[in-house]
Design brief:
Order of helices and strands: EEHEHEHEHHHHHEEH
Distance between the termini: 33 Å
Helix content: 25-40%
Largest sheet: 7 strands, mixed
Strand order of the largest sheet: 1-3-2-4-5-6-7
Number of helices: 9
């Protein structure tokens, strides 16, 4: 499984979303860590995504989780670490917590997948909050289709969205092994863990759960059920945010992440 590590210090592992790759996580988090030392960041490409090829031994989300645990054991070894997951990567991060929770000092879930089955998610239909056809007119039709329904049709938001889709989303989608992934994604019994991922004791380490108020993929209300389980959690529902958050709210997101990292520093100092 392809992976790369940046920096030195305490270990933090990032898990990207379905059909994405490590570039989404690096684009989101590396600007934050450029101003913050003391962390060794581990970025992975899940099997069948990015630079990691499909594998014959992986046919379910359970198998994906086993592969993630293996790479953590290889790279982090027996050290304590922090885990961060986006979308389906957030689901996998909760799986890592179930498997290696005694070694985890912090959890970050960004637009997390909570309920694997699409038909059981608590999701609202979303319409553009601000509509301005003049902002969209200059965009070529093919690119316009890739951008989908644009939540905020303002020039700054559209520019930020185009930059993210062009540099991260479209390249990752193009590299994803769709036949391999669809065998898992399209089968509810394979896309969901075979075990209750939240049947773990209360999670006492500092956590951050960031959701989009206008996320039409996983919504935000399902994540609220984690608040009592994650007893040291900050739960955020961002207005003007969809599943791909942050789009034009990088400063807000960075402030939340930095505050979370501060809490981990504090937490770890009391463990020593």
């Amino acid at each position: 499984m392809w992976h790369t590590s940046e920096g030195e210090g305490r270990d933090i592992v990032f898990i990207h979303g379905w059909t994405m790759d490590h570039r989404d996580e690096m684009r989101t988090y590396e600007p934050i860590f450029a101003l913050r030392s003391g962390w060794r960041r581990h970025y992975i490409d899940l099997p069948g995504m990015g630079r990691s090829p499909a594998r014959s031994d992986i046919a379910s989300m359970d198998d994906m989780l086993a592969a993630v645990v293996d790479i953590i054991q290889l790279e982090v070894k027996d050290r304590r670490f922090v885990i961060a997951g986006t979308s389906a990567g957030g689901y996998l991060a909760r799986g890592v917590l179930a498997r290696l929770g005694g070694r985890i000092d912090g959890v970050l879930l960004r637009a997390p997948l909570i309920v694997a089955r699409d038909d059981l998610r608590d999701v609202d239909p979303v319409e553009p909050l601000l509509a301005d056809a003049s902002v969209l007119e200059p965009i070529p039709s093919q690119e316009r289709e890739r951008l989908g329904d644009i939540l905020m049709q303002t020039a700054p938001y559209v520019a930020a969205l185009r930059a993210k889709v062009g540099s991260v989303v479209s390249p990752a989608n193009a590299m994803a092994d769709e036949p391999f992934l669809s065998k898992i994604r399209d089968a509810p019994e394979r896309y969901a863990f075979s075990f209750d991922v939240d049947a773990v004791p209360a999670v006492p380490c500092p956590s951050l759960i960031v959701t989009g108020r206008h996320d039409s993929s996983v919504g935000y209300r399902d994540a609220w059920r984690l608040v009592d389980k994650f007893t040291r959690s900050t739960f955020v529902v961002l207005d003007r945010a969809e599943h791909g958050l942050p789009i034009d709210q990088q400063d807000v997101f960075a402030a939340l992440v930095n505050e979370w990292l501060d809490r981990i520093d504090e937490f770890q100092s009391f463990r020593q």
